[in-house]
Design brief:
1 helix; mainly alpha; single chain; transmembrane; 44 residues; membrane; transmembrane helix
Length: 44
């Protein structure tokens, strides 16, 4: 009983970390796109 409860908690913790990584990745991609857009407009 205790083991399964700990496993589910661990799974939830991993899922939470995955969400944080995804959010950071999206922010990173947005930053890169903004940066690329600035360079693109400068060279136009």
């Amino acid at each position: 009983m205790r083991f399964t409860k700990e496993r589910s908690h661990f799974k939830n913790k991993n899922f939470h970390i995955l969400i944080i990584i995804c959010k950071r990745f999206i922010l990173f991609v947005k930053y890169i796109l903004k940066f690329a857009a600035t360079i693109y407009t400068k060279f136009l």
